[in-house]
Every structure is written in structure tokens, then in C-alpha cells.
Design brief:
heterodimer; A: 351 residues; alpha/beta; 8-stranded mixed β-sheet; 4-stranded antiparallel β-sheet; 13 helices; B: 329 residues; mainly alpha; two-stranded antiparallel sheet; 14 helices; 4 strands; 73% helix; cell membrane (chain B); BPD_transp_1_N (chain B); transport (chain B)
């Protein structure tokens, strides 16, 4: 299993920009994002709603309406270019080479078809020669694999007859039925109970080890990231503001936005009485992005380095002495370290 | 599933019973006496009384209702002595005006109406759903606008206008079609189609509008559903995404409206039948009402109620077939 592709990125996103023309103007949902995921690696993408994390993954799957979305930059999946690729070719990759799991499994499964039939459908699109019986056997096998009890019976159940966790398991079974090389999980546990969340994350980890696929987990929950991801990309207003390994981003966070995210997570080990500190303000409108650093209206440290926060868009640059860790912030590195040590460190350790 | 069907079925029977009671008693509120009608001009009160006794019209209403219902199920004898008339089941009464059983009048009219309505309904549903489907997928383009315009034109025109216009155009001017007439499809299938094509087209043009609008709205809604995104993410070709996932999910209200339309029309497409001069149930009912031929009117009203209840039951069953979540309730 150690071929050359091991070391290369299976998915490569370069300077991806996605914008939508609306009545009120152009919405720049993703504005120049780059990242890569290798097989066997899990990348977590974190951000608030509207940060562009889902839009970028939909672009990878080629699910944007070509008439409404303008996509530039480059997305390669297993070496194949997705941007500008004819719909029919991307369609063949969808569900086969790359698959997706969605947030709410109740609305993501068709209410009128049995779970089995939906899995069979997913299998047979990409295995046109498989008989219905073979596909059904495969569906039962997958349901068994994701931990659904009595899969030979449950294969004929409708989604509404499943519990929330079971539905998400079925959804995972459906997305993995064709052994995809890339799996994108868009908030896979957000709609679930906390106890079920942990089970689903465990399952995803197991399956990744087994199928050796590249995985992207999109979430706003840093707890999910710390449990399952190898690398993290923090997105804000359609751009990457911080990138690194889980260790780097959660233990040595560099960007004030990441600090804010960490501060708004309750800690099990810390002081239970301590107040959570929410990030002030709300995510910016993508129609009318703030000038300079998009985070400056909410950043307590904006303006500490002259006017650059208000005028220049910060570049994502490597963090000194921390290989693989990069951040897009105008604050000088020593100033960041100082603030972090003084105000933030406790919360970071909590995770 | 079997229990669901049974429960809905028995509920429908109950409804039919209620409707028949209501209709029956309503007819006694009409200020005409069937006996006087039968007696004719220059009728003495004694004669009227005599006829009333013979026909059982002097009996309490409930007894008369019982007689009527019994007639439908097993047949009955109307009147007494040598003027007694044997009325076979299903006996819907006797038309004194034309001296024949109401069931034979209805029996002649029903195939005409069924032909017009079933063919017309198939066409209007197909046309409406396809128009709506296409305009939803081509939203905002000229195809969308012309499809909606076309169906809007249909909805705002009247059948006696469009029907006559088409008849003048295709029958008298272009001479492409013969005057619409009913031929039994069992006698000559070709003649049946040719004779029916104008009423069908007219109905389709006029009735497809609501289906087009409904289908378009439903499709636009379901196309933004998560499960449609899932279907695309699986790699399904667009055609299957649209038909098997989006349309299937939005079809429920369309089936409802279709069931109601079908039920109402089967009870008699009054205007259509009159415009094309086709002696269907609606035509017969209108004529009977003009002549105060109460037994015939009564029978057509009951028949209309029967069809509405029947199609409603079928729609309920279809619901359960379409939406598995309904089977629970």
C-alpha cells in the first residue's frame, strides 16, 4: 500500500475562488483558498456559517450550478482538474472517486425510498453491470460495516424508521459504497446527539483507516477537529486565516479569530465558573467585505500595526520556527506571542 | 397496508351513505310532486293521491329511502297492480317521461362521459406536468415564460369559446376532423379516438394550467431539497435526479388535485358535453333538470357523489403508495 501517491496530495485546491452573481451584487463566497489532502489524511475545515467552508467543498464535488456560480482557480482530484471540467465527466467522479456526507441525514435521504434502495442506486450508477441482487448484497454488507444491527432487515426500512444516528450511518454507508478515494463530510455530527456524535466520529476514523481515503471534515466544532483531524484550516469570510496541524493550530494558535473560536469552547478541565468569551460582532456580509483584513471589525487587536489591518489584505504566511504552520495576520509575530501568552493560553490548553 | 386500505374504504362507504341520505331528502324539499308530473295536465287531486299511493310516495321518507337503496342493491317493483314496473338492480328509479329505467339512461350516458374525462384527464395531466417540469428546469428562460403563458391563456379562456373555436377551425374550415361523436371503443377504436380528440384537446388546454403551475412550484421547491443534492452527489445523471428524486417528491399535491378534478368531471362534464353535443352524464343531467325529471336528476347527483368519493379513496390509497410515511397514520 505504499505507492508514490501516498506522499502526494490526492486533492489539491489552489487559489480557489467561488462567487455568485445575485440581485444585490457579487457574493464572493470563497476568495482564494489553497489546500491539499493526502490519502489517509484528515483535513478539518473550521469556520462560522458563511465562511465559505461548505461552498468550497461543493465546488470540489462540482455541485455548483455552472450558470450561477463563477469558479476560478484549480481543483485537482487524483490528478484530474475539476474546474471547467464538463459536467458529465465530473458526474462520473461523484459518488465513485469522491463522495460526500451531509449535515442532516433526515433531509439528505429521500423520504420515499428505502435506505437499501438508495444505497443500491448509488452502487449501480457506477457499477452498471452489477445485478440488483449483487447491489443489494453490497448494500447489506455496507450497512453491516457501519454498525447497523440486523442489516438484512433494515435494508428495507425507510429513513423515517431510523434514528438520527442510524440515518447518518446509512448515509455514510451510501457514500462509501463505491470505495471513494476522497470523502467530504459536511458537518456530519451537527444534527446529532452528543453521544451519537462521538460514535459517528469513531466510525469515520475506523473507516478511513480501512479505506485509506483522503477525508475532509467541515465543522464549526473545534471538539470534532481535535478528535478526528490531522490538519486544520481555519476559514473566515471566504479566506484561509490559519493553517497547520491540529497540534499547531489548537495548541499554538496564531490568529485572533482562532483565539476567539477557542475561547468560545467550554472546557472540561478548566474553571467551570469561567465565562465563555464569544467573538464580538457577527460574520461579515460577503457582498460588502470589510476592507483590509476581513476580521478587523471584530478583532480586538486591529490597528496595533498601523493602518494595515484596514487597508491591506493579510497574506497567509509561514509562522516562524513552526514548520507547516501558517497564518494571515498583520500582527508582528512577537506581539502575537505576547498577547497569546497573556490572554489566551489557558483556553488553548483546555482542548 | 391492508388495514390502511380497509379503513379508508369503509370510511368512504360511510361517506357515500351520508351523501345519499342528504341527496334523497333534499329532493323532497323541491316544490314539485313526481305524482303530478306523471299524472300530466288536468289532473284531479284524487288521481294524484292514487299515483302517490301506487309509487309509495305516501310512505314515510325513511321507508322510501330504504326502498330506493334496496332497489340499487337487489332491484324492486315500482307501483302496484297491473301498472307495476319491474326495475332490475341496480335500480335508480324510473323515468316516466321516457318510460324507461333510469339505470339504462345513465348506462347510455356514462361511457360517453368516462371516455371524455379519462382521455381528457390523461392529456391535461401529462401536458400540465410536462410544461411545469420543463419550465422549472428552464426557469427564467423564454421556454419557462412561454410555457407559463400558454397555460395561463388556457386557464383564462372558457370551454365554450375554445371548444367552438377549435371545432370551427378543425372541423369546418380545415376539415381535418369529423364532428365530435361518441363511438364505443369496443366497436371501433380508431373512430373512438377520432371522435374524442377535439373534446380531449380542449379539456387538456383548459385544465393543464393548474398542473403546470403546481408542478413548476413543486419542482422548484424539491430541487433545493437536501436529498436532491444527495442524489447529485451520488453521481446520478440529471434526468434521474429530476424525475426519480425531485418530481417524485413533489408529486403528492398534484395527485390530490388530479383526483379531485377527475372525480368532479366523471360526475358529468356538463359544459364540455353540451358544447360538443355529446350525450354524457352532464348533458343528461342538464336536460333532466330542465324537464324536472327528478329520478334522473337524483341518479346523476348520486353518481357524481359516488365518483368524488371513489376518486378520493383512490387518492388516499395512492398517497400511501407514494409516501411511506403516510402508512403509519
Amino acid at each position: 500500500m505504499t505507492d508514490t501517491t501516498e506522499e502526494e496530495d490526492f486533492l489539491r485546491v489552489d487559489d480557489l475562488k467561488v462567487s455568485f452573481a445575485t440581485m444585490d451584487g457579487t457574493v464572493r463566497a470563497v476568495d482564494g483558498v489553497s489546500y491539499g489532502v493526502r490519502r489517509g489524511q484528515t483535513l478539518g475545515i473550521v469556520g462560522e456559517s458563511g465562511s465559505g467552508k461548505s461552498v468550497s467543498s461543493m465546488a470540489i464535488m462540482g455541485l455548483h450550478d455552472a450558470k450561477r456560480a463563477e469558479i476560478t482557480g484549480s481543483i485537482t482530484v487524483g490528478g484530474r482538474q475539476i474546474v471547467g471540467c464538463p459536467e458529465e465527466e465530473v458526474r462520473k467522479l461523484r459518488g465513485q472517486t469522491m463522495a460526500m456526507i451531509f449535515q442532516d441525514p433526515l433531509s439528505a435521504l429521500h423520504p420515499y425510498y428505502t435506505v437499501g434502495r438508495q444505497i443500491v442506486e448509488a452502487y449501480r450508477i457506477h457499477h452498471p453491470n452489477a445485478s440488483k441482487k449483487e447491489a443489494r448484497t453490497r448494500a447489506i454488507e455496507m450497512l453491516d460495516r457501519v454498525g447497523i444491527p440486523r442489516p438484512d432487515k433494515r435494508v428495507d426500512s425507510y429513513p423515517h424508521e431510523f434514528s438520527g444516528g442510524m440515518r447518518q450511518r446509512a448515509m455514510i454507508a451510501m457514500s462509501l459504497v463505491n470505495d471513494p478515494d476522497l470523502l467530504i463530510a459536511d458537518e456530519p455530527t451537527t444534527a446529532l446527539d452528543v453521544t451519537v456524535q462521538a460514535q459517528i466520529l469513531d466510525l469515520l476514523e475506523d473507516l478511513q483507516r480501512e479505506f485509506h481515503s483522503a477525508v475532509i471534515i467541515i465543522t464549526h466544532d473545534l471538539g470534532v477537529i481535535s478528535q478526528i483531524a490531522d490538519d486544520v484550516l481555519v476559514m473566515y469570510a471566504g479566506r484561509a486565516v490559519e493553517k497547520g496541524t491540529v497540534e499547531q493550530v489548537l495548541r499554538r494558535p496564531q490568529h485572533p479569530y482562532t483565539w476567539g473560536l477557542l475561547n468560545s469552547v467550554p472546557s472540561l478541565h478548566g474553571d467551570a465558573e469561567a465565562d465563555l468569551v464569544p467573538i464580538k460582532g457577527s460574520p461579515p456580509s460577503l457582498l460588502n467585505r470589510p476592507s483590509g483584513c476581513a476580521f478587523h471589525p471584530r478583532c480586538p487587536y486591529a490597528g496595533q500595526n498601523g493602518d494595515r489591518s484596514f487597508t491591506d489584505v493579510p497574506e497567509l504566511l509561514p509562522v516562524l520556527d513552526d514548520v507547516g504552520h501558517s497564518v494571515a495576520c498583520h500582527l508582528p509575530a512577537d506581539r502575537r506571542r505576547e498577547i497569546y501568552q497573556r490572554d489566551i493560553a489557558e483556553a488553548g490548553v483546555a482542548l | 397496508m391492508a388495514r390502511f386500505i380497509l379503513r379508508r374504504g369503509s370510511l368512504a362507504l360511510l361517506t357515500l351513505f351520508g351523501v345519499s341520505v342528504l341527496t334523497f331528502f333534499m329532493f323532497f324539499a323541491v316544490p314539485t310532486s313526481p305524482a303530478e308530473l306523471q299524472c300530466g295536465r288536468d289532473c284531479r287531486p284524487a288521481q294524484v293521491q292514487n299515483i302517490e299511493r301506487q309509487l309509495g310516495l305516501d310512505q314515510p321518507l325513511w321507508t322510501q329511502y330504504g326502498q330506493y337503496m334496496k332497489g340499487i342493491v337487489v332491484g324492486r317493483t315500482i307501483g302496484q297492480g297491473d301498472t307495476a314496473i319491474k326495475c332490475e338492480a341496480p335500480c335508480l328509479g324510473w323515468s316516466f317521461r321516457s318510460s324507461e329505467a333510469v339505470s339504462s339512461i345513465v348506462g347510455r350516458a356514462l361511457p360517453v362521459t368516462i371516455s371524455i374525462v379519462l382521455g381528457g384527464a390523461a392529456m391535461w395531466a401529462l401536458l400540465g406536468v410536462s410544461l411545469g417540469f420543463i419550465s422549472a428546469l428552464r426557469r427564467g428562460t423564454w421556454i419557462d415564460r412561454s410555457a407559463i403563458g400558454f397555460s395561463l391563456a388556457g386557464a383564462s379562456l372558457q370551454i365554450y369559446f375554445v371548444g367552438l373555436l377549435l371545432q370551427v377551425l378543425f372541423v369546418y374550415t380545415l376539415k381535418w376532423l369529423p364532428t365530435p361523436t361518441y363511438t364505443s371503443p369496443f366497436e371501433s377504436f380508431g373512430d373512438w379516438i377520432v371522435g374524442m380528440i377535439l373534446p380531449w384537446t380542449t379539456l387538456a388546454f383548459l385544465n393543464s394550467a393548474i398542473y403546470a403551475r403546481l408542478t413548476r412550484a413543486q419542482m422548484l421547491e424539491t430541487l433545493s431539497e437536501d436529498f436532491v443534492r444527495t442524489a447529485r452527489a451520488k453521481g446520478l445523471p440529471s434526468r434521474q435526479v429530476y424525475l426519480r428524486h425531485a418530481l417524485r417528491a413533489g408529486i403528492t399535491p398534484i395527485v390530490t388535485i388530479f383526483g379531485l378534478d377527475l372525480g368532479v368531471s366523471l360526475g358529468g362534464a356538463v359544459i364540455t358535453e353540451n358544447v360538443f353535443g355529446m350525450p354524457g352524464v352532464g348533458f343528461t343531467a342538464a336536460e333532466a333538470a330542465r324537464q324536472l325529471n327528478l329520478p334522473v336528476v337524483m341518479a346523476t347527483v348520486l353518481l357524481a357523489a359516488f365518483f368524488i368519493v371513489l376518486t378520493n379513496v383512490i387518492v388516499d390509497w395512492l398517497y400511501a403508495y407514494i409516501d411511506p410515511r403516510v402508512r403509519l397514520g
